[in-house]
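Sample pair:
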Amino acid sequence: MFVAFLVADLLVFLWWRYEKERKYDAQITAAAARYHVDPALIKAVIWQESRFDAQARGGAGEIGLMQVREDAALEWANSERLRAFTKTELFNPTKNVMAGTFYLTKLLKRYRKTDNPLPYALADYNAGRGNVLRWNKGEGSTNSGVFLTQIDFPTTKLYAESVIRRFRHYQGQIKQPS
């Protein structure tokens, strides 16, 4: 009897987790189409940043699913010609995913001359451009494998590696925009 309850609880938990991870797929695919980013990458960043909690708040003022900061959100709002945008609108999942994806796209473009812009962009998303400039010296300026070894913030290195693993996990699970 106990085993049956345990199995039932496990199945409920797995169903809940599956549904939680799919809840924002419409917003993710819309942002992926708008900014030409793989939706699996957006979903992986959301997983890492907030575990799909639209009300999440970070210690440095980050808000929502993608933990977007106000300055990045205002840059997005200006580029989209949204007037009277306020940071509280980042609790809106659609706006948060659009703003976060806009910013992620900007970072991916920033490092397009490397062999793989993803680790650079993720390190920038997590620790900022100033730190990436410190870490992308020598061979690490274009070789993403070397770059990852030069990251001296263990949490940022783990962040980038974790998002990349989750990105691979989500690939093929969410529809690519056409």
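DSSP finds nine helices and no strands in the chain.
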